[in-house]
Amino acid sequence: MKGQPYLRWPLPYLQKFFAAVDEILFIPYAGVTISYDEYTASVSRALAATQTKVTGIHTLADKPAALHQAQAIAVGGGNTFHLLATLQQENLLEPVRAAVAGGTPYAGWSAGANVACPTIMTTNDMPITQPAGFKALNLTDFQINAHYTAKTIPGHGGESRDMRIRELLTVNPGMKVVGLPEGKLLELQDNQWYLRGIATEPTLLFTAGKAPLTLAVGKVPL
Which residues of the chain have pLDDT under 70? Predict the structure, then answer.
């Protein structure tokens, strides 16, 4: 959230989510203008209140084994194309997917939320590098458009976020997209999705050929 320290607003949720975790395996590959060491350190500082150690996966020799043994996985924001391309190059998509399928908690924000989806086709990022494909972790059966806003810039002729999402659904009518604004998160508990967060812009569910559905905080039909 603009004007707040890094990861401050979701900290109570993260404290609860990582309550039984001694160490988080952090994937910093979305970082581009910051080193992986610096990125990991910034997350460690932000999560200091959780009293949970944060270890960057880039520092470990056997990354698949680390994912298999991880108590929890966190994936930070940055550039989604760079994140996905690096996960592909390191052959880590399947190990992450398998770990989460086996019950390992996963928390992702921005690019880390987008890569949790079936594809990264709803990222807002510039394609600064070319991944082998757009298919991602497929931890959800819907897409997330992070940092969603219905606002437009006065006097600016570019497409709105809604228009971009409509383009996607016109070409891919089987998809559904959650427009997730700043200050909101989605949490999966016992196969039920919940919308959490603070008062910001509406969270919208986009499907092809229908008006967007506004999602209320609490259980959501995803």
Answer: none
Asked whether 139 and 117 are in contact (CB, 8 A), the reply is: yes
Does the annotation mark 190 as catalytic?
Answer: no
- Does pTM top 0.90 for this prediction? yes
| Residue 147 annotated as catalytic | yes
Query: 110 catalytic, yes or no?
Result: yes
- Select which of 44, 147, 160, 162 is catalytic: 147
Q: Which of 35, 42, 62, 110 is catalytic?
A: 110
DSSP the chain: -TTS-TT-TTHHHHHHHTTT-SEEEEE-TT-SSS-HHHHHHHHHHHTGGGT-EEEEGGG-S-HHHHHHH-S-EEE--S-HHHHHHHHHHTT-HHHHHHHHHTT--EEE-THHHHTTSSBSTT--S---S--S-SB----SSSEEEET------TT--SPPHHHHHHHHHHH-TT-EEEEE-TTEEEEEETTEEEEEE-S-SPEEEEETTSPPEEEPSEE---
Architecture of domain 1-139: 3-Layer(aba) Sandwich (3.40)
Mean of pLDDT over the chain: 96
d(C-alpha 145, C-alpha 179), whole Å? 5
Q: Which of 137, 72, 140, 83 is nearest to 111 (CA)?
A: 83
What integer pLDDT is reported at residue 158 of this predicted model? 81
Question: CATH topology for 141-222?
Answer: Rossmann fold (3.40.50)
CATH 3.40.50.880 residue spans of the chain: 1-139, 141-222
